[in-house]
Every structure is written in structure tokens, then in C-alpha cells.
Amino acid sequence: MSHQFNKRSISEQPATATVTFNHLGVPVSTEFDDIYFNNENGLAESRYVFLQHNDLPTRWQTSLHSTFTVAETGFGTGLNFLACWQLFQQTAPANQRLHFISFEKYPLVKADLERALSAFPELAAFAQALLDAYPAAQTGCHRLQFDNNRVIIDLWFGDIHEQLPNWLPNAENSVDAWFLDGFAPDKNPQMWQANVYQAMAKSCRPSGTFATFTAAGAVRRGLQEAGFAVTKAKGFGRKREMLRGLIHKETTITPRPPETVTIVGGGIAAACLAWSFTQRGYPVHLLTQGIADGASGNAQGAVYPLLHAELSPLSQFYVSAFDHARQFYQSNCPNLWHATGVIQLAFNAIREQRQQKIADSGCYAPDLVRSLTAAETQQVWEYLPALPALFYPNSGWVPPQRLVQQILQNCGARLAITEVSEITELQQTASNTWRLDASSGKRYEASTLIVAAGANTSTLLAQWQIETQNVRGQVTQVAATEVSASCPMVVCYKGYFTPAENHNGELTHCVGATYNREFKQESYQNIEPADTEENLLTLQDNLAQAWTLPLNAVNNRASLRNTTRDHLPACGWLTDNLGVVSGLGSRGFTSAPLCAELLVSQWLGEPQPLADALIKRLVPQRLQVDSA
């Protein structure tokens, strides 16, 4: 059994669905002995029951909110989501967004999902986008974005009774329509319980609606007791009746005005924040000394999850963060996302024991990570040593500087960038805005401010005593040889070695990186020959392969990683208009996209993309000196 930091937020890796396909090609659940959708026309039933009886096209036209939120019990094949997405694309106002939330105890494996959805050719483009983004079957929330963040889906894998308490604290009064789906109440009575109906009621906005294919008396009574006015309607096809309903409640939520958000920083965290805000329609002012000139400026960076032998808060966060980052880069910067896979070598006995514990834990899906024998490692690439390894098949690498530049470019006209000298002081004004003083003597004002300044975090947040640590790292670029150029993926050991990339007309690899807590602040960017030697010697020692010996250094780069004492990012709000994303360490390109989505979702009062217990683990206040 996995160790749990919160029994309501983390359980072992969910079991994937076991399905067969009947003579009509419809998937049938082995667990519940029930079909996933109507034998005759599953898409027509989805449209009739859920889209029509929640009155969606009309409500999209009259909604007072810029984002329309749908929640669903039972993701299944994703048919309801795809039908909803298609209708939204066809009929919703161009400036409206769709946020879809779905819970699934037994996620389908990708091959079964693909086969099931092939029955609906008119949804083929939507289905392919879902398949490309489909996450590993890991407990918790997986946020996927489509159509430049106009359509978001949060997939919550795991038992709905465990996941609702993780989701609901950050989703009250936010849902416009519920799709009460799942296998029939007589087949799956465990799901159709009072706590589900009560969560539906709490999460609904005033005049929130629901629709469901069933007319079972227990379901009707449970929904009425939760506060819904329930009516019967004609069922789909041969079904006599179905239920629909509406909730009346008194809640006043004032939408945020279209104010400009100011961000301090120029790396991957700042870029992802700018993107998340601008795609929601908010203008952003970026104050920066340079674009990707700090820890985000290396030539190549690996993107893969940080895992433990138990589902610790750290590994649970990185599972969600990795899947989101992979899909974010794949959809928004496809030319810069290299899905090569990452291999992690067990180069000594301690590392082998640690990796074996991860492999044996049962915590992780094989499409997230799997173990390789020594022979299998050499089958991946014959020039690797015969060592056991962990293989991350959907991981890969990005060119950081170009990636940051492209994300900022994708923000479009809503983003304004001002190059500034170092921001030295941050003060709150009498009118509750923020004044920023730069070393040049210039001043800047901000109504809502986010610090995403990496190594400058502690300086800017001195008055809050947020304690982060800067660690110097030096990366070495080496010229590719005939053998090294054939390296197919990122190779990790005590350091890392990247596939060859064309860098200014020359094929090079990145070899890194040193990790120095002690350094001189005024000269940290100076190249240290001893660090170059350390990078090369670590590669040669850990891999013990002849091809590593003649590699020649052609370039070096030193920068500072901003880290935290518990290795989790700092992500949250110090005041209602001062946010922080920092402490991303050496895995910023894995964690930044999800951190940005979390911070923006909090600011707008949207349902959030992480379990409540994990969100509390990320708050920057935990890093205040007196909280240690």
C-alpha cells in the first residue's frame, strides 16, 4: 500500500477500465457489466440528454460569466465532452471559454479510447486532440487545454467519493451545468450517493442545472434533498423518462474587471503566467531585465516528472505538472517539443535500489515510467552501459530560450513587455496598489502584481521574509561526434546528457549540471574550468563508455536556480493582489505551466487544477522564516 499524506487526496494508481466490445462495436465495462453509450446512437443520446436538457446553446448566449463551466460524473470514453466541445465551438460567442470537469474511477487505456471514439467520425478532429493529450492513468487532476486555452478539461482520475473533497473546496459556486452520467444506478450504486448530489449543489452557481439519463426514484429524491428542483422529461429512444433540474441559491460573485496584471520576471514561469492571463482576455505588463536570460536560458532542458517510491506530495505534484507541461508544449509549441523519452540510469547500487523501489511501488502507470533491465537499456541505444534504468516514454526536452520567446509571442497584443533595470524594492501604496522601484531610479505601478523573478525572489519579497535558496549551476555544451549524434533521448545519471541539437550551425549536446550552494554572488556567471571538468568527468564515470572520452567542450553557461527547502514550488497569493510563482529549482519547465494555471485560477475563482491538500503545500507563506 502506498504511503498517503492525505487519504482523501491520494490513493494508489487507479485501475484502468477493463472493456470488451460488443457485436455493435460498443464498449462494455467488465467492472459494471454495462455499456458506455447507447447501442443505437451514443452521440445522439449525449446531445439529447446532456446538451439539450441543460439548454446549453441558449445559456452560452446569455451567460453573465466569461467562462461556462460544466462538471460531469463518469468521463468514460469522453463522448459527452467531445459532443459538448463541438457544440460550443459551433454556437458559443467567440469570447467565451468552456471549462469542463470530469471524474473517472476507471480510466480507459488509450487504445480502447481510440477504438470507442472511432465510431463517431464527425468528432474525429476533437477525438484526435483528446487522444494526443490523454494523460497517464494517475490518481488526481489532469488539466488539458485545447483551442488556445479556450477549452479546458480537468480530468479527475480516482474514486469520485475520494476526489470530490479534493476538488470542491476550490470549486463552490462555479459550475453552470452538471452531466450526471456514469453507469446505471442499479449497475453502479456506489456512485449514486447523497454526497455526490450535495457536492453538485454546493458547486453550482445560482440557477445551475443538471441532466441525467436515469429517472430512478432514489436519484430523484437524493437530488431534491440536495436542493434541486427536479422534473421529468421524455427519455432518449426507448427510455421512457429522464431527469433534469435547476437549483435556486443566493450567491453574489462579482466578475473581475479587465485590469492589467503586472508580472516581474522573464523566464518560463513569467511566460506561462502571461499566456494563462492573456488567453483569458486579461492584458499583461511584463517587467523584465531580459527574456530567458537566467535559469531559463540554457540551450536544452529536460521535461520529466520527479517521482518517489511512494506517492508523496512532491511526486503527486510532479505527476500532474508533467502531464500538463507535456500537453501544453505539444499543443502550443509543437515545433519546440521533442518527445524523445528520458532514461534514468542506475549508475550505482544506491541509485539502483531507489529506482527499483519506484518500479515495484505500483504507484505509477507504465506510460508514465517503467523499469528496464540492463539488456533492455542497451536495446534503447547500444552505446548506453548495460545498467538497469527507469524509462519515461512520454517525456522529452525543449530549447528553453526559444520556448520562452515563443510562448510570449503566442500571447499576442494583450502582452506588453518593458525592459527594466533590476527591481530593488516593492512597496504597497495607500490605495492598495504596488510601487516598484528599479535601480535606474524609475518607478512602476501595478494594481495586481505577480513576482516570478527566480533568483531575485527573496530580495523582492524581503518584507514577507520568504526564504528561498539560490544554487549555482554550470552547463557544458560539447560538440557532437558520429556516435554521440545518434543518442535518441535524454540520458540522466548523476548529471544529464541531451540529444544533439543544431546550435549556431554546429551539432552540440548539453552536459550538466553542477550544483553549488556556495558561490560569490557578484561573479556567479563567470565560467569555472573546474565545473566544465566536473561535468565531463561525471558523464565519463557514470556511463563508463568509450564514446564519452573524446567529447570536447565548446561552450559553457552558468546561472542560478531558485529552490525551496522542501523542493516544491512556491505558488500562491501573499495578498489578494500580490502573487508568487518561484522556487522551481531545476525542473521549472516541468512545473511552470501548471503553477501558472493554478495561480490564475485562484485569482479568477475558477475550479483549480490540483487537489486542495496539494494546493496548501505550495503556498509561499510556508517559506516564511518563522514558519520553518
Automatic annotation (TrEMBL):
Q: Which UniProt keywords are given for this protein, alphabetically ordered?
A: Cytoplasm, FAD, Flavoprotein, Methyltransferase, Multifunctional enzyme, Oxidoreductase, S-adenosyl-L-methionine, Transferase, tRNA processing
The FAD dependent oxidoreductase domain is annotated at 261-600
* A single GO molecular function term of this UniProt record: flavin adenine dinucleotide binding
What Enzyme Commission number(s) does the record list for this chain? 2.1.1.61, 1.5.-.-
- Record localization: Cytoplasm
What's a single GO CC term here? Answer: cytoplasm
The main location class comes to cytoplasm
* Domain MnmC-like methyltransferase, residue spans: 121-246
The annotated region (FAD-dependent cmnm(5)s(2)U34 oxidoreductase) lies at 264-628
Chemical reaction(s) catalysed: 5-aminomethyl-2-thiouridine(34) in tRNA + S-adenosyl-L-methionine = 5-methylaminomethyl-2-thiouridine(34) in tRNA + S-adenosyl-L-homocysteine + H(+)
Annotated stretches, region: tRNA (mnm(5)s(2)U34)-methyltransferase = 1-248
Q: What domain of life? A: Bacteria
Q: Which GO terms describe its biological process?
A: methylation; tRNA wobble base modification
Q: Which Pfam families match?
A: DAO, Methyltransf_30
Which cofactors are named for this entry?
FAD
Q: Which PANTHER family match?
A: SARCOSINE DEHYDROGENASE-RELATED, TRNA 5-METHYLAMINOMETHYL-2-THIOURIDINE BIOSYNTHESIS BIFUNCTIONAL PROTEIN MNMC
Q: Which HAMAP family match?
A: MnmC
What is known about what this protein does?
Catalyzes the last two steps in the biosynthesis of 5-methylaminomethyl-2-thiouridine (mnm(5)s(2)U) at the wobble position (U34) in tRNA. Catalyzes the FAD-dependent demodification of cmnm(5)s(2)U34 to nm(5)s(2)U34, followed by the transfer of a methyl group from S-adenosyl-L-methionine to nm(5)s(2)U34, to form mnm(5)s(2)U34.
Q: Which family does it belong to?
A: In the C-terminal section; belongs to the DAO family.
Supply the name of the protein: tRNA 5-methylaminomethyl-2-thiouridine biosynthesis bifunctional protein MnmC
Source organism per UniProt: Pseudidiomarina marina
Q: Where is the organism placed in the taxonomic lineage, from the top?
A: Bacteria, Pseudomonadati, Pseudomonadota, Gammaproteobacteria, Alteromonadales
